[in-house]
Amino acid sequence: MRRILPYILISLTGFIFLGRLFYLQIVDDSLAVLSQNNAIKVEYDYPQRGYIFDRNGELLVSNQPSYDVMAIPREVEPFDTLELSTLLNITPERLGKRLDKAKIYSPRLPSVIVPQLTKEEYAYFQEKLRKYKGFYIQKRSSRDYQIDFGANFLGYISEANNAEINNNPYYQAGDLIGRQGVEKQYEDILRGTKGVKYIQKDRFNREIGSYKDGIYDTLPVKGKDITLTIDAELQAYGEKLMENKRGGIVAIEPKTGEILTLVSAPGYDPDLLVGRKRSKNFNRLWYDTIAKPLYDRSLQAMYPPGSPFKTMTALIALQENVISTQERIDCHHGFSYGRASRMKCHSHPSPLSMSPAIAHSCNAYFGKVYRRIIEKYDTPQAGMNAWHDHLASFGLGNFLGNDLPVGQPGRIPDAEYYNKWYPENRWQATYTLSNGIGQGEVATTPIQLANMTAAIANRGWYYTPHILKEMDGEPIKDEKYTTKNVTTIDAKNFDPIIEGMFGVYEYGTAQFLQIPDVEICGKTGTAENYTKIDGERVQLTDHSIFVAFAPKDNPKIALAVFVENGYWGARYGGRIASLMIEKYLKDEITRTDLETWVMSHSLEEEYEKPYSGEPFKINQ
Amino acid sequence: MNKSTGFDWISILLFLLLVAFGWVNIYSASLNEGAQGFFDLSQTYGRQGLFIGLSVVLIIFILSVEAKFYERFSSVIYLASLLSLLGLFVFGKTISGATSWYAFGGFSIQPSEFAKAATALALAKYLSDIQTNIKSFKHQLGAFLIIILPALIIVPQPDPGSALVYAAFFFPLYREGLSGGYLLVGLCFISLFVCTLLFGAVWVSVGVVLLALIILFFNRKKKKKYTGRYIIISAVSMLFAFSVNYIFHNVFEQRHRDRFNIVLGKEVDSKGIGYNTNQSEIAIGSGGWTGKGWTQGTQTKGNFVPEQHTDYIFSTVGEEWGFAGTATVVLLFIGLLMRLIFLAERQKSKFSRVYGYSVVGILFIHFLVNIGMVIGIFPTVGIPLPFFSYGGSGLWGFTILLFIFIKLDSNRKATYY
User: Fold this and answer.
1) If you measure CA to CA, which chain B residue comes closest to A207?
2) Range of the domain at A134
3) Residues of chain B with pLDDT > 70: what percent?
């Protein structure tokens, strides 16, 4: 025993040491990370963010330098709080709070204490900076907007939040990241890559030279400039027309799927979200839960499409051979189906064949045709699915796949949808009749409606709408946006529908909106809508909807206009659509009275009604 | 009739490996801008090269001296060593708070590094005396005095770390027949000490009394009950616990208290007192499997670990050579220690055996305390890692210690009475 004990003691020590070393060096990797943090200082060089141009090469967004006051909490030494807070133009309490927050985030990593000083503030502060140990200035590039519109598709940039920093190793606290719009969608392209310098420090935190002679250092790579498909002039005009109204305008170039305008009203000046005023302004926009300026109605708002949807019913009916273009259908201010069920209609000549039925927007015609489509099949389920599949080929009822970060799928019901609603699948075509005229269960977003119109204008195909045109001068090559989507409707079936849409202007619901010398096709829509006030379902003033494209035989623009509670299709939607098309095609407005009317009419009063208790105007 | 059987080349090889690897790491730990090769005497690593060269001279000298010399002159060497330690109180030079050095021009000599070998010789001489019986209390006391005398002189320098090393002589004493009870009692006191610091004197007392009652309960049917002994042991334990409490809070200085508290996990303090250990753990932990490569350690370069070329040299190994390097060093030491035990056991002369075990004990304590401290499982006690840490006195002290034994071993077949 006496001879063995030393061996045991030595072996045991060896095992304990090896175990502890194994734990420190192999198992516990937190120390390895810590080592990187306290011996090596990392300095970043932020590149310029890419510029944004419109389709005509007009500069929309450029950059301006901004200066963030950063601090590394463990290096901060006691300082004159009052002086610093005066310099930075914040209260001492707020400064204290920011520092505490930075310490909680990490004592060794830099945090932003005051973001985005102006040039003047920076110049003043820089001279006194040396007095404040642990503080430094990080130069970044922030946005400089050349326009005061388009905030909904441009988006904005702001500091990356903790979740983003954790999910993506590229971002550090204080880094700016794109939010909403193209800033978010094309963040990777626009931001470039920041340059990194590793600097070896000693324990007194003095820099003792570049780490490993800079073999890991990188230079910043400037972000790429992008050209959007947006026509800034048209966009500005659209936003002007939509002042004091709510809704959206989406215009698409049918031949390419390029989005010409993407108006969401109410909008806001993108410059509101730059610099130190950002958070105050952002809160104001965010908490406006009634007008919702941050909500992109052109992409996100699901509305019942109303009468423009009748074009789809007509196309499907022709494709399914349930009606000829010549057959006339009676209308007696509507028609009755089932027991005590009646679809109402307005005054117009009767009976009507297909094209005039579109021009006059006859409910009875399309209600009956819709019924034939569904009933063509043995079961309503099969009919409903066939109908659904035709619509899906137009990009309805699902996300379009456009290159903007927000969107809604809309809703095109299929058999399964109704099977869930009706026990034992006992439902028939008549139960869903409103779908035929764009009411009932169908819902679309303005961009879907615009895309649908583009597909009609093209007589059966469309490119997925997109907003990016060029990157650093190179046209986009993404197959998603350069491959034709072909609909399930044969090209020949489009002609009678287009004739009908032409008739809308010639002799139908929008006769007074013709544009001189332009063959324009359109379709009005008036959609019933409801809301809950104090738990009671109340019908609101109808939405005004309008889709149009022009010229008829060589379409250059297709658009959808949606004006919430705009009374009826031609009243607001039709006027705006007509003005937009004229502006785009002729670059001047000849009908100034029409323009003046739109700009001088406000719907604000209408929007206040749910809160003020005034009665609504329904179907007048 | 000199029957020299040649030197033990395994030990010598292990020694050389440790010294060489140590130098390589000292080079990295003290590297700075003005580096001009390994032998630049203005640099720490250059001086260590000189020390290594001089120790080769020492080795040749030690190995050429007659083996009998060390036994015959052990008392003289021991006394000279004690005198050199005492002389420090008059002529000593103070370096970083401890008056442990004699200054000769540019170089300083630390006599306590040489006193270990001298004490080992004296103890070997005393125990190998035919008159000495380790079982008798009188002779135990004699051996104890030989060991404790240099330690007592070293403590007030103050250099408690170096004094702690003298606990190493328990190895030869135990091998020669000292009752294991001493070890047991020692361990009991250490556990009581740690428990008192962790849980407080009151709870330790309660625990001791409970333990005694439980043992009494299970032994209640035995005829001999030793009740009196249990009462005495409990009383002594409680007294000890309360003294520890008193000493810890009233005699220890705050820095001592902090060191214990940090190792026991009672305090977390990454920037203050535990800074050394914390930084050394960071450096070691950042090494991974194979380390960052020689002279590539970021922590080493940034001088984050204090005393890195001396007491904390092992952290450089950890950072730059990774687990592969640290495991190699640990295994080299284990190998050397085991080889030395093997050598000690094959000695015919009791003198050589006792000396051999003293060498093992001293090297082991240094190894245990130094690496234990660097990897954060021991309180901070400033003693060097043998053959590895920077320092002429340390290197020479260990070289002398080891090579006297290798000389004795080479001479083991010679008989001289």
Assistant:
1) B302
2) 51-185
3) 88
